[in-house]
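Class, study these two lines:
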Amino acid sequence: MLRSISSVRLFLICFAAVALALPMAILSLAKLMALLGALILLVGRWVGRRVEPALPTSAVSLMVLLTLTLMLGSALWSTGSNEEILTAMSKHGRLILIPVMLCLIRNRREASLALAFFVGGQLFLLGSTWLLFAGVPVPWVTSKEAGICEICSYAIFSSYLDQSIMTAVLAAVCWHLRPLAPTRYRTALALLVATLALACVFFLFQGRTGHLVAIAMLVLALAWELPQPLRGKALLLTLLLLAGLMAGSSKVTDRFREVRDGVQSFHQRDELPSSTGLRLDLWQRSVQSITDSPWIGTGVGSWNREFKRQEQNHLRDMPINRASSQHHNPHQEYLLWGVELGLAGVVMLCGLMLALYRDSLRLDPPQRRAMQSVVLALCIACLFNCSLYDALIGDFFCITLGLLLRLAAPLDARPALPEMAA
C-alpha cells in the first residue's frame, strides 16, 4: 500500500508540473487532483498521529496561510458582493499551491523528476511556438490569439502575455539548473534552450512585461556567471547589446513606443485610451481607493466596485465613456492587494516575496539562482499585471516556486505515511 500511495503522489506532482504547458482545462484538473491528494495526506497524518509536521517548515508556507486567513477575514468588511468575494477568494486561493507542492514532494529526487516534467512541458510549448512561426500546422493550438495578424501572436494555449513570461522563466530555469541534467552536453543544451526561449520572447511575442522579465533574467544570469571584477563591464556590454536588440526587433521597439504614446494620451485625456493609458487610469483609481481606506482596505473582492466608485467621483477627469468600461483587476498585483487589504496587504505581498527569497537561501547555488530568478520574474510581472491573481500565470508561478523550494529537501527522505501502510 505504501508503494501505491507513493506512486499516486508522484503522479500528481508530475501531472501538475507538465500541465502548466497544457490547456487550462487540463491544468484545472491537475490542480484539483493535487489539492485532493494533499488533503488526503494531511488527514492521513492526523489520523496516524504523526509527530513531525505535515508541511515542511518554511517562511513561505506560514506567509501563505497568514495571507489567506487575512483575506478571508476581510470578507467581513468587504464592499463587494458575495459572488465577487467568492471569485476573488478562489483566485487568491491559488497561493495554496505552494504549500501543496511542499506537502506532496518528499525528497529532492521527486522534486528533480517533477522539474524534468515541467521543463519537458515548457519545451513542448516552445517548440510548438517555433513551428507555428515557421508555418507548420500545429493542430493542438487552442489560443484565440494564434494566427491573428493584428497582434502577430504565436501563443499556443494562452495569451502572448502569459506565454512570454513563462518562456523567459524557462530560459532562466534551464540555464541555472543545467548541473542537474544527466548528460555531458548539459551546458550546450541549456544554452540552446535559453537562446531559443529568449529569441522567442524578443522576436515572436510582443508582451512588454515578457520583454522586461527576459532582460532581467539575462542580466541576472550574466552577473552570477562572471567574476566580480568583470560584472560591471559585462553589465554595460549587456545593456548595449539589449539596446541593439531593441533597435533591431520591431516587436520590442513598437511595444515600447506604444508605452510612450500611451503615457501621452493618458495625460491628454484622450477619449480612446491605449493599453498603457488604460493601465495608468486603473492604477490612479486604485491609489485613490487606497487613500480613502489606507489601513485595512475595502475587503477581498471589492476592487471592481471601488474602481467604479472612483470613476464616478472623478468624471470630470476623464471622458464619459471610460466610466462604463468593465474591469476585473487593476493590472498591478501590489495595487490590487492595497485596495482589498490596505497598506497591510501591500506589506503582506512584499513579505511573501521576502519569504520566498529567504527560503531560497537554503538551496545549493544552482538551485538558489533558479529560485531567485523566478522570484525576480514574479516581482517584475506583478508590477504590470495581477500575476498571482490571474489564472494561468498565477498557477505557473505558484507551482514552479513550490517545485524549486523542494530542491532543499534531503536527497532521500523517509517514506511517507508508514502508519497508513500498517
